[in-house]
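Something for you to look into today, if you have time. Could you write out one complete protein record for me, on any chain you like? The space below this message is yours for that.
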Amino acid sequence: MEKENKKLAKTAPKTDTSKIYELGYILVSSLPDEKIASEVESIKDLLSKNAADLVSSEDPILIDLAYPMVKVVSAQRQKYSRGYFGWVKFEGEPDALAEIKKALDLSTTVLRYMIVKTVRENTLLNGKMVLRKEEREEVALEEGSDEVLSESAEVLDKSIDDLVIA
């Protein structure tokens, strides 16, 4: 998957009016596992048919939803508390969005979706959140690394002394 993302991300911009979008979607949880890949491919095919170039994507994973969602399929209301969440980043023309939205609205397997403008670059933090200074000190104290804190304080004092003009 990562090789595909790197290859796709190197494509050049299409036109002056094309923009980068990200489509986040939730597929219904009633899909069998073997059908999920084909549904993702149908979403990518829909984008390709509307002259969109794929930049990157992530395969859907099963998540618990924050609240129950209802989808009407064949005149029957179905309630879902779980769904398969995935996303696709693509470059396309703003005019093509109407057709993409229409097809996603008519889909029986897409529970919810959202299309947002974004940037080409990968903006993920790779799962590592940056801790604030206070949180780092708390973690260091909990782990019993007083030496690390005093050592870093000494290094800081020395660097401040080097910067101060006497």
